[in-house]
Specification:
single chain, about 140 residues, alpha+beta, Double Stranded RNA Binding Domain, 4 helices, about 25% strand, globular
Amino acid sequence: MRLHSRLLSLFLCVAFLTACANAKSVAQKPADAGTLRSFNAPFEDVKDAAYGALKLLRLYPEGEHDTQERHVILLARPPHGMSWGEVGRISVEKTGELPTEVRVVYDKRTPFQFTGGEESFSRRLFERMDDILAKRSAGPK
């Protein structure tokens, strides 16, 4: 019986760890995955606003790279409060014309935590990006 409960515990630990999201799993999601938002601003301004919004949220990129189609920012938020942390990807599309689209993928590290969902994070990120872009367009001319 004791061996049975140990094996069950081991199985549950392995299942728990394999269900965890990580930076690699988020980076490998399809390019069209996540929450989409369009901004009526040029690519460089939107990219700068994304970095500015992350700074306001006290999040810092774990990695970034450019492709021909998009600029990608990878995030990893460490455990905090009642959360095991989250991982995410922000993609700023390089369309060359307005609007500039941004896609956000943001996953909880474990499916068992209650905080840190994509919808909540995307909303907070996009609100801050809106504020940054509004201040930029209202700046001195």
